[in-house]
Amino acid sequence: MQEPEEKKIALELLETEQAYVSRLHLLDQVFYTELMKEAKTAKTVPEEVVKMIFSNISSIYQFHAEFFLPELRKRMEDWNRNPRIGDVIQKLAPFLKMYGEYVKNFDKAVELITTWSEKSPPFQELIADIQKRKVCANLTLQHHMLEPVQRIPRYELLLKDYVRKLPPQSPDRGDAEKALEMIFMVAKHSNAAIAEMERLQNLWVVYQKLGLEDDIVDPSNELIKEGPIQKISTRNNSTSEKYLFLFNNMLLYCVPKVIQVGAEFQVHLRMDVEGMKVRELKDIEFPHTFLVSGKQRTLELQARSGEEMNAWIK
């Protein structure tokens, strides 16, 4: 008799989990442990750096090795009597929130490996030595570190497939569908953590360009658009190059600095978004012009194209 489709998928989940736990063992028990030992004894790299590279990999490894894999194994051995995995995955799902921290830290970790490999030859040599071992299968540390980042999407795909192949009257249908919903929420949680990190990084870059003015640096601000613009001077009928940063709560009207030491821009004017009015101006002499009027003052600005003007107005 042929195995039912859903059992094949459940077995694939078990097999990939076994391989995954071996990878986590390599990251936590080999790379992390040996690099930490090196940091403590030879002091070739600060212990803090090693901790930052591996984030919370130890918790992730223990959870999968000591809890999820054994539970899954037990369930598959008992499949003929109890053909279900939905309830086991429901127990797994809340713990996958631990991945948020690891995923958020991933880019920084890879950057630290590169930086410290250049700074500390013994650090680089130890990594190279571990990478030569058979267990590494000719892959780099960075490659192995990517595995936890890809694991949650993998669970989601396998479980989707599993639910799709379940017979309508399967005793596992309710549990499996609930488990899929939970995994989906965790994946979203992990993506939201990355998006928030990227938003804060981009915001920080902007604040540095502005010279970190105290009253502007606020982590809750959201940058909506930035770019060069021409300021029209009606007095002498000319334009001059300016730069705009539009946030959710304010518009910063800036002047590019000639000597860029530290900040790239000087803030000439802050306008509150609240109560601000924007409209297009039909000016034959200066095409693509629009008017921004706020509590503080009114600016007549010219974009490089109609498209750019519309983007700013929007």
TrEMBL record:
CDD domains: RhoGEF (cd00160)
Transcription recorded as keyword: no
Entries under SMART domains matching the protein: PH, RhoGEF
Keywords: Cytoplasm, Cytoskeleton, Metal-binding, Phosphoprotein, Repeat, Zinc, Zinc-finger
InterPro entries listed in its UniProt record: DBL_dom_sf, DH_dom, FYVE_RhoGEF_PH, PH-like_dom_sf, PH_domain, SOS1_NGEF_PH
Domain DH: 5-193
Domain PH: 222-314
Domain of life where this protein originates: Eukaryota
Compartments, as annotated in UniProt: Cytoplasm, Cytoskeleton
Pfam annotation, one family: RhoGEF
GO CC field: cytoplasm; cytoskeleton
Molecular function as annotated in GO: guanyl-nucleotide exchange factor activity; zinc ion binding
Biological process (GO), any one: filopodium assembly
Protein name from the UniProt record: FGD2 protein
Natural source organism: Orthonyx spaldingii (Chowchilla)
